[in-house]
Every structure is written in C-alpha cells, then in structure tokens.
Design a protein that fits this description.
Helix content is 31%, strand content 19%. It has 868 residues and is of the alpha/beta class. The model has no long low-confidence stretch (mean pLDDT 94). The chain binds iron/sulfur cluster.
C-alpha cells in the first residue's frame, strides 16, 4: 500500500497528494503547500479516475482511427493552412490544466517552428490582469512572496477572493494562523458576503469594480499621513508623484466614509500586511488597473518581499503559473522573456535552433475566437479546455469553432460541449496517468506522478504535440523520448532568461537525471546553478525594468457602474466549493455533487421580493448576449442589485444553466482578460407549469425544457421542469430513459396536478419520479439512497423517510454526508462551535472545507435561538 506522491489537479494552491493503489487519496504531510491538508475536491479525487465517458482512442469525424493516421492528418492540415494562408492562420488554445512540459512543447512548436504567437491559454480568463499588473510594476511577471507570508502577517486583506471556496487549503492555513495569533486581522473586500467573510474582522462589501477607488484612497491616506517609506521609494521606485496625482481623482468604492476610513487606517498602521487578490480583481475591464492600485500601496510603503508582507495573486488553476513561465500566453515568450524584444527572441530562437520566431504578439483568447468567427483561422487545436462553455459569449464561440475549416481537441473526456464541435479528437492522458510538473501560486514546482495505468490509447499531451511536430518536419527539435528530457530543456533555457536579468531561473535543474526528476521534491523557484533556491523577491529592490526600479502606475478609478433599465442587475460569476471548471472531472464524484448540485442564481431577498420570486423557483436570466434558466437561491449574502451565478454548468449536465453565453466579451484593454463579473442582466420568473424530481439507476435523458442531471451514489438524479402543460405523465416518464425495464407503479392526483411513480424490477427500485405544480418537496437524499435497493415501490412514493427517521436535509459536509437538518438539530441541542458540531454529527471532521458554512450556520441559528 505504498502511495504515490503527486499534486492535486484542481486549484492553484497546488496541494501535495498521496495516492494509494486502492484509490484512497490523502494529503501529503511533507508538501509545503498543504502539510497534509486537502479540501473536499482533493479528498474525493479517487471518485474521478474511472473509465466512464473517457476518450480512449483518436477519432476523426466520429470514427476511431490509428494514432498514426490522426497525427498525420493534423500535421497535414496545419501545414496546408500555413502554406496557403501563412503562420497566423493557425492557432492553439491551451489550458492551465496542462503540465509545464506540455505547455513548453506547445509554445515551442507555435512560436519557434510555425512562427506565429497564436497560442493563448484559458489562464487568460483568470489571471492575465495579474500578469500585466506585475509586468507594469515589476518589469516581469514575478510573484514576490509565498504562502507563509499569509501566516506571518498581522493583517491579511482579501480582495475579490472567496478563498474559503476557491483556495480552500490556503484558507485553512489562514484560519489556523489566526487561531494561533488571535491579534491577526483579516479584512474581506468583496461585493458579496461569502464563506470567506466568516473569518473577517472587517467585511467591506464594495460596489462592483470599486477596488481601484478604495486602494487609491489608501494610497492618498498613506501619502497624507506620512506612511510612505521614503527610503524605499527613493532607492527602488519610479512614478510615485504621478501615481499620487491620479489617486487623488475622486472615485466611488461603494463604502461608507467610516468603512473606508477604518480600512485605510488599519492598513496604514500595520507594517506586516499581505494583500491577496484573485478573480474579483482580475476579471474586470479595469482589472490591470486594480492590480496596480494594490501594488502601488505596497511599493509606496516598501511592504513587499519581506516575511509577512506583500501583494499576493492567488492563481486559479493548477498550472496557471507554469503556463506563464513557459510563455503560454500569446504576448509572452518562454521563461518570462519578452516577445517584443529582438534580443530575447534571438536568444530563444538560437537555443531552440528554430527556423523562425514569432515577431509580434498573437491573438489573445477573445480575439482568437473572434478571428475564428471571421474566417481568419483555418486550423485550430484546443488542448484540455472547454471554450464553448467558458469563454464569454459562449454561444458565439461555439459558432466560431464550427466555422473553422479544421478543428482538433486533445482531451481526456469524450463528450464535452467543445468536443461535440470538432473534427479530430485526440485522447490525452489525464491526472493519475500522466507525468510532469506544475507550479503553484507561490512559485513551487511539484511533480504530478502517474499511479494508474494509461487507459485505452491515451498519450501525454507533450507527446501528442511532439508527434505532430515531427510529422510537420521538425523531427530534430521534437524527438523527445521522455518527459524529463523536456523539463531539462526548459531548465536549460531558463539560463537565457537569467542572462537578461529575469528572476525565473531554474538552471539548477538543467542536469537532473531521470531518477532525480522522478524523485524531485517540491521546490520554490528560483533554483540557481549556484545552489540558491526559493526565497522572496524585491525586499531590497532588484526589479526587472532596465533601471532596476519598480514603477508605480497612475490609475484612475472607473466611473460607478450603472446598470441600464432593461438589464438592471450586475451579473457576478464564480466558483462553488465542490465543483471545478466545466465539471468534466469533479461531476464524476457523487459526493461532490451532493453540495449545490444544480445551476442557480443567487439574489438578495429584497430583489427576490420585488420580482415575485421564492426560494427554489426557477428564474430566467437574460443579458444582451444570452439567456439561461436556473434555480433561485435567495440570500442576504447577495449584494442588492447584483446577482451571482456559478461558472460550472455545461450542456452535459444542464440544459439551460450555462453562464458563459450571458457574459459580454468586454476585455481589459491592457491584459485582454474578459470582464467575467461585469455583465448586466435581467431576471424574470420562469412561467413553470410543472416541476419534477427523479432518481434512477439508469442515466436520465434531458427531455424537459429545464433539466439538470447529476451522478449520485446510487446512479443518477435530475431536477426537471417545463413551461408547457403535460397531459401524459407516463409518456413523459418513459421518454426520460433510453431503456428501462420493470413494473411501473404510479399515483396521480389531478386536483393538485401531482404525479408520482416508481419502477421496480425483480423487487429492486430502479427509479422514482415526482411531479408537482410547485417545486417538488420530497426528501431527495432519502429517495436517492433507496435506488437499487429492495422496495415494494409504494413506500417510496411518499417521498418521505419513515416517521421515526429525521431527514438530514441538503448536504453541507460532503465527506461525511451530513445535512443541514442534522446540523440544525445539533445547534439547537447546544453545539455552539465547529468542534462541538463535529463531535456530535461528524460534520467538518475530514477535509474541513465545510467549516466556513458550519460557522455561519452556528452564527445564524444561534441568533435565532437567542431571539426566541
Ligand atoms: Fe486541490 Fe483543494 Fe488543494 Fe486546491 S486547495 S490544490 S483543490 S486540495
């Protein structure tokens, strides 16, 4: 039972994982990112590695072909396009899910051999504004600090970052640090109140895009109260005066003067301050300015690059940082070198012995798909990502992909919204089967190691790309025989970056043997040939602009966001705790699907009341670019006038719950990152004629106008609804399966329009179906638990547990399967903290991801109990 040490494939925290041969997953106690912790997603990785829905062989036009035929076809069609239309007629759209070696080979092929920079990554959607802000301020995309800084700080400011759900283990480290040092202060700046808010001493619910105004106010306060570190600024910083002048321009943060005052005083008075920011800052049409507004305050005070202080960008994806390092963005060269710099280009071209080198930036993600729509791209290769869901104006992106004459997708999964559109599918080896490295948010390079046999004909991405490159005639440069050979070449190339003064130097890895690579421990870069490793940057200056100084960038706050009358809400989008991206991996886990298993729109009670919406109704969400229908969640945590929708649902799991089509393709002008949190929307009640719920042993076909399907521990379940009357329930029921045998037992009540039926085969319950004119009120977990069990049928039609069994309610703790009713009962019985709840219910005693929700449930319900 010796485990394999590998790295979690989900978020940018980059936790170390121990994968045991029997499928058990544990946190790696030796990994410096998590020291043994895992969140709910990491904990349930073992449920996601099976063969279901895998792409296991190359396919052309839906037919299985040999690898040889597939790679030749891809090489020929790309070569034809380049010959007939030039190198800029082809493009790669890649992913932060790729390993660094995959990214490196793709970037080398496109920039150095095809001769175009038309390679962009889905990281454009999550941290391009951080990259651009870093480059403007520091002269390079260098993250100055590390996770320990959050633990050592006296003040941690979280900006646009629901750390509790999006970077849960980093959040757990912060919680533990605050417990140890109760004087530590946490400020949470976010238009929404989130699971993260429970830890905050100060919750600042700013207006959408109010960040620049707030940090400009802070900069002015620092300047006016003598808090500027004059020595540091004089020695290491340019642009101070212009930045202060710009900051004095009035702005609108959406906070009260008292709130602003309290924040700027606290920040100014605390030397050890870390400002953590992520998508709430980056995903904006002024995202780069927001980043620089934050960096300006740290530069003005010299609070950077020393223990317990500095700005910190929390990256979304497992290898967003690795992609940045090897030049996976259309405007970057490998190893943090600049595409626009002729000396840098020559250095990389020489090192690669490449026939050419892209001479100008390529198309960034949104522009790339616009070029597809306009017919300028003749061949497109999408790697490990799902742009038909995740890009803004996703329906147009789907059309644009269909418009490209030749399209390829390399992926581990057979059916995705994107894969349904392409000509060639290439089976890529997924997590658990592939080998390589990833870099997390604190620059720590970790190994992903295989612990499962490769299924079907799947191959690692680097190998697929290299095989195509060889077929295109570049055998010498792409004849890699192992992944460690790729890594050594990348490490060797970093000497070039270092020779131009770049911080990214891993030349100490350039001579690793295969055994060294296999046993590589997590290591924070730089890794110099001289032996120096890790550390922080910029505490004593040493920035990467030609004069060695940082730049404070003058930024002005944008005008207050005013929604137009026809679309009166600001649409905020984001992640939920237990799903990941477009759910191709996480939705395979029945346990993860228990928590928020359906697409939803969250809105404030006042807005819901004005719209005539109740909890669990359905609502139509409309923007200028698309429409969706999803479940209503009413919460005081929502900001009035704003709505929130999760980013995860696709056509594979819900017919109408995608948020991508609703988001306008407006981008930050500097970074090209889409403003995924700033579209305007209208909300109207859906005129539903009937609602349904079904649980089944067999897959459920999404027939009704509203359908949301998920994997359960006993099979499948679905939430259904329609805006049309149904007069033949048995007929509808049969249409929900491709084939299901068994005896149907049903109950119809015409007076209230309800219908219930169950299918029993050989005494086993195969499915149960409940219909009502109102949102279906049955004990879902109970019904799901009975599927596949012996049953007489009629008992299940009650949809209730026996009178002596309490329904646990909606699941809050995915690991231990503890529901909200069980938790409420325990609170009513006297459990007043998370530990006490854990002792009596088990909730929160495994990975701990639900602890923020447990904390807020205790606080809400204790208040009610006191009031009573
Ligand atoms: Fe994986 Fe969770 Fe760690 Fe992120 S915090 S790397 S999702 S275990």
């Amino acid at each position: 039972m010796k485990p394999t040490k590998t790295t979690c494939p989900y978020c940018g925290v980059g936790c170390g994982v121990l994968a045991f041969p029997d499928g058990t997953i544990k946190g790696d106690p030796d990994h410096p990112a998590n020291f043994g912790r895992l969140c709910s997603k990491g904990t349930h990785l073992g449920e996601t590695t099976g063969p279901e829905r895998r792409l296991l062989a190359p396919m052309v036009a839906g037919n299985e072909v040999s690898w040889d035929r597939a790679t030749k076809l891809v090489a020929e069609r790309f070569s034809d396009a380049i010959r007939d239309h030039g190198p800029d007629s082809v493009a790669f759209y890649v992913s932060g899910q790729l390993l660094t070696e995959d990214y490196y080979v793709a970037n080398k092929l496109m920039k150095g051999f095809i001769g175009s920079a038309n390679i962009d990554t889905n990281s454009r959607l999550c941290m391009a504004s951080s990259v651009a802000g870093h480059k403007r301020a520091f002269g390079s995309d260098t993250v100055p600090g590390c996770y320990e800084d959050l633990e050592q700080a006296d003040l941690v400011v979280l900006v646009g970052s629901n750390l509790a759900w999006c970077h849960p283990v980093l959040f757990q480290r912060l919680v533990a640090a605050k417990k140890k040092r109760p004087n530590m202060r946490v400020v949470n700046i976010d238009p929404r109140t989130t699971a993260t808010s429970g830890l905050a001493d100060m919750q600042l619910s700013i207006a959408p895009d109010g960040d620049t105004a707030l940090f400009n106010a802070l900069l002015v306060h620092l300047a006016d109260t003598g808090r500027v570190n004059q020595d540091y600024v004089a020695a290491h910083v340019n642009g101070f005066d212009d930045a202060i002048t710009a900051a004095r321009t009035p702005g609108h943060s959406g906070l009260t003067p008292q709130e602003e005052e309290a924040f700027v005083r606290l920040w100014a008075a605390t030397e050890n301050v870390v400002t953590v920011y992520s998508q709430g800052v980056n995903q904006s049409d002024c995202g780069t300015d927001k980043v620089n507004a934050i960096l300006n305050c740290h530069l003005a005070t010299g609070r950077i690059g020393r223990a317990g202080m500095g700005p910190f960008s929390a990256t979304g994806q497992p290898n967003a940082m690795g992609g940045r390092e090897v030049g996976g963005l259309a405007n970057m060269l490998a190893n943090h070198l600049d595409l626009e710099n002729p000396e840098h280009r020559t250095a990389v071209q020489t090192a690669w012995n490449a026939p050419t080198m892209a001479g100008k930036p390529g198309l960034k993600a949104v522009d790339l798909f616009q070029a597809c729509a306009e017919g300028r791209i003749k061949a497109l290769w999408i790697m490990s990502t799902n742009p038909a869901v995740s890009l803004p104006e996703a329906d147009r992106v789907a059309e644009a992909i269909s418009n490209v004459p030749f399209t390829v997708s390399s992926d581990a999964i057979l059916k995705t919204d994107t894969n349904d559109l392409v000509d060639v599918l290439l089976p890529a080896a997924p997590w658990g089967e592939k080998s390589g490295t990833v870099t997390n948010s604190e620059r720590c390079i970790s190994r992903q190691r295989p612990f499962l046999s490769v299924q079907g004909q799947a191959r690692p991405d680097w190998k697929i790309i290299a095989d195509v490159a060889v077929q295109m005639g570049w055998g010498n440069a792409f004849s890699y025989t192992s992944v460690d050979e790729v890594f050594r070449e990348y490490a060797e190339l970093s000497k070039q970056g270092a020779s131009f003064g770049r911080a990214l130097d891993i030349s100490g890895f350039a001579n690793l043997t295969s055994v060294d690579y296999d046993t590589l421990s997590p290591t924070r870069w730089p890794v110099l040939a001289t032996g120096r490793r890790g550390g922080r940057f910029f505490g004593n200056g040493g920035f990467h602009h030609p004069d060695g100084k940082a730049r404070m960038v003058p930024v002005q706050a944008p005008k207050p966001v005013v929604a137009p009358a026809e679309f009166p809400f600001v649409l905020n989008t984001g992640r939920i705790r237990d799903q990941w991206h477009t759910m191709t991996r996480s939705a395979r886990s029945p346990r993860l699907n228990q928590h928020l298993g359906e697409p939803f729109v969250e809105l404030h009670p006042d807005d819901a009341r004005a719209l005539g919406l109740d909890h669990a109704d359905l609502a139509d969400i409309t923007t200028s670019t698309g429409q969706a229908t999803c479940r209503v969640r009413i919460s005081v945590d929502a900001r009035p006038g704003s709505i929130f929708m999760p980013m995860h649902w696709t056509l594979q799991h819900a017919k109408t719950g995608r948020v991508g089509p609703l988001v306008r393709a407006t981008c930050d002008p500097v970074s090209g990152q889409p403003a995924s949190k700033g579209s305007f929307a209208a909300v109207t009640p859906t005129r539903v004629k009937w609602y349904g719920f079904m649980a089944s042993l067999d897959p459920i076909v999404m027939q009704s106008a509203y359908s949301a399907v998920k994997r359960t521990q006993t099979g499948w379940s679905a939430e259904l609804a329609d805006t049309h009357e149904q007069d033949d329930w048995p007929d509808l029921f049969r249409s929900l399966f491709e084939d299901q045998a068994g005896e149907v037992m049903s109950l119809i009540d015409d007076r209230n329009g309800s219908y219930r039926c169950a299918v029993i085969e050989n005494g086993i319950l195969r499915s149960a179906f409940f219909v009502s004119t109102r949102p279906v009120d049955v004990a879902r977990n109970f019904v799901i638990s009975k599927i596949g069990s012996e049953s007489s049928g009629y008992r299940i039609l009650a949809g209730r547990r026996p009178a002596n069994e309490r329904d646990p309610g909606a699941i809050v703790c995915s690991c231990m399967g503890v529901g909200i009713n069980t938790i409420s009962d325990a609170i009513a019985a006297g459990a007043r903290d998370v530990e006490a709840l854990g002792s009596c219910t088990g909730a929160g005693t495994n990975c701990g991801s639900c602890k923020p929700e447990l904390t807020s449930l205790i606080s809400e319900q204790s208040e009610i109990l006191v009031a009573e």
